[in-house]
Every structure is written in C-alpha cells, then in structure tokens.
Design brief:
Structural class: alpha+beta
Helix content: 25-40%
Order of helices and strands: HEEH
Oligomer: single chain
Length: 85
Amino acid sequence: KTGTAEYCDNVAQAKNICQQESWPTHSWYVGYAPYDDPEVIVLAFVYNGGEGASVAGPMVIKTLNAYFDLKNIGTNSDMLTSTIP
C-alpha cells in the first residue's frame, strides 16, 4: 500500500484486481456549502475511480449546484415554469 486512495477489499479481490504494488484506487471528495454557514454536505465515492478528486470532485460540485438551483426555484416564483399540458 502506497497511498490512502489504495484499498483492496472483497469486491476487488473477487474481481482479481488486487495485485501486489498495484491495488485499485478510489476517488473521494467531500464538500459543504455555504462555507460560512453550512446547510448541506455532499460526499462522492467512486469505486476504482483513480486517485485524487478529478472524478469525485465534479460530482460534488454538480450536486451542490443542483441543490441550490432547486432551493432557488422553491423561493423564487419567477423562476417557475410549467411544462405540464
């Protein structure tokens, strides 16, 4: 094991992807918002997604953006549009 993103569990063992010096890596990222008074926290975990936040980070950002977009729709009636016939 050379890094904290490397982890060999029973899923990886069953798929025979746990090789010595080449364990699978998982992408993790946690974000919260707003930074000065947090009301939401999002954690993304991508199994065998590689090291760092390059995979999980954008997922967290998109989720936080969607949360606040939906929250704004609920509070700003001018943003509401009906698509139901």
